[in-house]
Specification:
The complex is a heterodimer of chains A (about 260) and B (about 220). Chain A has helices spanning about 45-50, 85-90, 110-120, 125-135, 155-165, 185-200, 210-215, 235-240, 245-250, and strands at about 5-15, 20-30, 35, 60-65, 65-70, 70-75, 75-80, 95, 170-175, 205, 220-225, 225-230. Chain A is of the alpha/beta class. Chain A has a six-stranded mixed sheet with strand order 8-9-10-3-11-12, sandwiched between helices. In chain A, strands 2-1-4-5 form a four-stranded antiparallel sheet, covered by helices on one side. In chain A, strand 4 (about 60-65) and strand 5 (about 65-70) form a beta hairpin. Chain B is built from nine helices and no strands. Helix content of chain B is about 80%, strand content about 0%. Chain B has about 220 residues and is mainly alpha-helical. Classes of the chains: A alpha/beta (about 260), B mainly alpha (about 220). The interface between A and B is medium-sized, with 30 and 22 residues.
């Protein structure tokens, strides 16, 4: 366990003629908790989605523990890796989504065990035991047989986090996991994220929760127009932003 | 109108009607089964990103949905042997109905596939599932649940379409009824009973499908 867990170098991404990421460089060490902030359209979610190949990207490299993600370059030619290989690489990271995206035809427990059985090839007993452990960890063991429709938004998001984390990813990606929640349900989800951070999980969080970013992150990245505008220790950054853009952004953000 | 209904002649031949009904159900089951498999393949083809696949699937649907089933049945029975494919009456009818039903089922399935939220596929990808695993464990079950109500009407419609097999003398329900009609001259009685059998059978089918639907429904 030496060096960086995640290395993003010169990341470029475009949708048609719109360049969304204009060369992002970012290294993440083991155990770091990084909050990515910025106004909408700044490219923060896109960057996160490139890390697990939910988005293709046209330039740059992403490495996890030194392994190049998604593409292989041989003889100057850049090729997308085979689907099977990409699927395996996606399992190196876990992701929680803004809209939870729980499988509606499966119970909470089945949501968590699906990947364990199909990807990790665990037996039914093994996957259920592990699934129950993680549901317990997010405080939802008593709801294991409930379908997503019978759970609150906060509960659904906690199941979704359990589903991702049960796969024992090396890196967790959180994409605005509290943005779709009613205000009174935000705390229970942040509590789960915080406890994972306390356990030493490496994570990248795209978030609008400034107070949370401030309290939990080891580092904050401010995305601005497809580039990293500023990054650093949250206390320093929030207290004395170096750029005009960050100062404006912080002024317009709520800290509660 | 001096006509007295007399069902005695029909009851004497009731066994034939029941055997006919049995054959109707069997033809429908086999044809719809094949049609579902082909329809699923076509539906996935239509929504695939490959222009070629979606074009071919679209062409299939255009052709087979716009042909009257009777024409397809006659083609299959009379023309295919000329082209070197000799099938029994039953098989040629099943072939025609399967090809025809696939076009309708493909459209039903396609609608369901489009309704599966993209976010669920992404959630599957994010835990490391392959496209095939996602299709089988996530997309297919969710799609099937959402199309069940429409599927029920399609199945019932296709079951009734088996009556066209009478045109090539497959001894299914309508054919048997016509035989009894011709042999006994109890015209009204024969067709009342045959109609009753269709209505009762379809009602039972509908009730069964509703039960499946209720059982599989994603609880809300």
């Amino acid at each position: 366990m030496h060096g960086n867990l995640l290395e993003i170098h010169g990341l470029h991404k475009r949708y048609g003629s719109v360049e969304v990421l204009k060369g992002v460089d970012c290294n993440v060490a083991h155990g770091e908790v990084i909050s990515i902030i910025g106004s909408s359209g700044s490219g923060k979610t896109t960057m996160l989605r490139c890390v697990n190949m939910l988005e293709e990207f046209e330039g740059g490299t992403i490495r996890i523990d030194g392994e190049e993600i998604g593409y292989a370059t041989a003889g100057g030619e850049r090729r997308r890796k085979p689907e099977k290989e990409i699927a395996r690489q996606r399992a190196l990271t876990g992701m929680a989504f803004q809209q939870f995206n729980l499988f509606p035809h499966m119970t909470a427990l089945q949501n968590v065990t699906l990947g364990l059985r199909l990807v990790k090839k665990m037996s039914r007993e093994e996957s259920q035991a592990l699934g129950e452990t993680w549901l317990d960890r997010v405080g939802l063991l008593s709801r294991k047989d409930h379908y997503p429709s019978g759970l609150s938004g906060g509960q659904q998001q906690r199941v979704a986090i359990a589903r991702a984390i049960a796969m024992s990813p090396r890196l967790m990606l959180f994409d605005e996991v509290t943005s779709a929640l009613d205000p009174e349900l935000v705390a229970e989800v942040l509590q789960v994220v915080r406890s994972l951070a306390d356990d030493g999980m490496t994570m990248l969080l795209v978030t609008h929760e400034m107070r949370f970013a401030y309290e939990v992150s080891s580092r904050v990245i401010f995305m601005n127009q497809g580039r990293i505008g500023e990054e650093g220790n949250p206390k320093m950054m929030f207290a004395s932003p170096k750029t005009e853009r960050l100062a404006e952004f912080l002024k317009s953000s709520r800290f509660d | 109108m001096g006509y007295t209904l007399n069902f005695a002649a029909v009851w004497r031949n009731f066994d034939d009607l029941l055997w006919g009904l049995g054959l109707s159900l069997l033809l429908a089951a086999v044809a719809i089964g094949l049609g579902c498999v082909l329809g699923l393949v076509l539906a996935f083809g239509r929504v695939s990103r490959s222009r070629l696949l979606s074009g071919l699937a679209g062409l299939y649907v255009t052709v087979f949905r716009n042909l009257p089933l009777l024409v397809l049945v006659l083609f299959s029975f009379f023309a295919l042997p000329q082209m070197g494919l000799r099938l029994s009456k039953q098989s040629s009818f099943v072939l025609a109905l399967a090809l025809y039903s696939a076009a309708y089922l493909a459209e039903v399935f396609r609608g369901g596939l489009l309704g599966v939220p993209q976010g669920l596929r992404e959630a599957g990808l994010a835990i490391g599932l392959t496209q095939t695993q996602i299709r089988r464990s996530i997309v297919l079950p969710i799609m099937l649940r959402s199309v069940l109500p429409g599927l029920g009407s399609t199945f019932i419609g296709l079951f009734k379409d088996t009556s066209l097999a009478a045109a090539i003398a497959v001894p299914e329900l309508t054919f048997e009824a016509r035989k009894i009609n011709v042999e006994t001259f109890r015209v009204i009685e024969t067709w009342i009973v045959a109609s009753g059998l269709y209505v009762v059978t379809c009602s039972i089918l509908a009730a069964l499908l509703r039960q499946v639907e209720a059982k599989l429904a994603i609880s809300r």
